[in-house]
Amino acid sequence: MSLTTNSNALAEKLQSRDATREPTWVRNVLITIALIFFLSCLILPLVLVFVEAFKQGVAVYFQALINPDTLSAVKLTLLTAAIAVPLNVVFGVAAAWSVAKFNFRGKSLLTTIIDIPFSVSPVIAGMMLVLIFGTQGWMGSWLMDHDIKVLYAVPAIVLATIFITVPFVARELIPLMEAQGTEEEEAAIVLGASGWQTFYKVTLPNIKWGLIYGVILCNARAMGEFGAVSVVSGHIRGETNTLPLHVEILYNEYTFSAAFAVSSLLALLAIVTLILKAWVEIRQENQNKRNEDSTVS
Fold first, then answer.
1. pLDDT confidence of 284, banded at 50, 70, 90?
2. What is the pTM of this model?
3. Cα separation of 137 and 139, whole Å?
4. CA distance 163 to 114
5. Residue 52 burial by CB count (10 A; 0-12/13-18/19+): exposed, middle or buried?
6. Region 206-212: what's the mean pLDDT?
7. In this structure, what are the phi and psi dihedrals at residue 115, rounded to the nearest 5 degrees?
8. In the chain, count of helices (H) and strands (E)?
9. Are 229 and 160 in contact (CB under 8 A)?
């Protein structure tokens, strides 16, 4: 009797499993569609960038990279990222700490404000800066009276980049901190640790891989931002052109080899970003497994 019951239960289990299992041809079709999309929309364009960059030879490629305007664009791009990323790290950590560790009025409003750059077009973000710092803007006359140049200069480029990249660090850390809870911080404070000691000794080690992940994404977006920077830069060659803007100018002037050569720098940045992203994800997963094992033991 029990043997028959077990056999029937096993048969029902196998039938239910078969009922949810797709036929082999369906899986093959789905995998083929995914591979075709991956190759045609992601890999092929990336390969074509390097093919076009080296189309006229290595000498032309490196000549485009050492051009004074290209070097100026590289310097401005690095300078912008060097300013925007640390500021967003400070804001992101502070915002994540506040949202995840404390309850206060306006908490949901703060979370919504952090997400604004995700929902606002970068071009609109640039236009907002024009309305604030432009000649006819809210602060335009005051800036002109004090001979302070924000728009069509480095400050506006930095401000636009900061606005666009604000959510990356905060949005990476908020769910991580919420999942970790506040027990370890509370225990450290009970044992006599100060706020800074609790942050450096307890919180920061727990969030370091998530923080690095957010910094990588923030830096990649800062270096590759086009829309907002295009509005506020003025496209002054050799002064306010970042790498994406310099690529646009070269392409519009029909110097395609130079345009693709400079584009290859951004493509290499994307590849390095993906490699670092995968490495951080692996390290974070390993750390989570070690934490789970230590909790179980």
1. confident
2. 0.79
3. 6
4. 10
5. middle
6. 85
7. -85, -5
8. 15, 0
9. yes
